[in-house]
Amino acid sequence: MYIVSSLIFALSVNIDAFILGMSYGIRKVHITFLQNLLISLISFAGTLLSLSLGNRILTLLPSSLASYIGSGILLILGIFYIVKPLLRASADLHAESFRVTLPYKEVFLIGTALSLNNIGIGIGASMSGILLLPTVIITFLTSILLLPAGNHLGNTPLFCLSSRYADLLSGIMLLLLALGSFLS
User: Fold this and answer.
1) How far apart are CA 118 and CA 13, in angstroms?
2) DSSP alpha helices (H): ranges in the chain?
3) pTM of this structure
């Protein structure tokens, strides 16, 4: 039963990683294995911290504040990707037909946003008695799998769009993700 609880926890905190990966795939931004590993490690560290500290973090940082900060980062990224096409000249809009790699500063922002979003859930799970070791291992492995799966799906012909609409769709997805995280 503890493994099932850990798996449910891991899937619930990493669904954001899947959607985030898909939004980058739509824009033809490739997340490399190393970048995926760094994002997952940052998220893992935040999850480990929140699960291990449990009640102590709750007294220092309300779980809602951590969720709001993570949602805020996603919101800023979403707005950026909605406004980005408006800032480029129309000639530049069709120039990006190849896949590019995610910049490392954005890797750290993504990892931090995902980590902060997990803090509130981690505190609650810790207080409910979920086991630390199986939960953090399963959460890390789930993150390693879901982020590139979403990135790959977003890059499939089903989601192939011109970059003008890809940035817009990606931005909308990030805004919805931020809104859902903010409201939960």
Assistant:
1) 6
2) 2-26, 33-53, 55-60, 63-87, 90-93, 104-127, 132-154, 163-183
3) 0.69
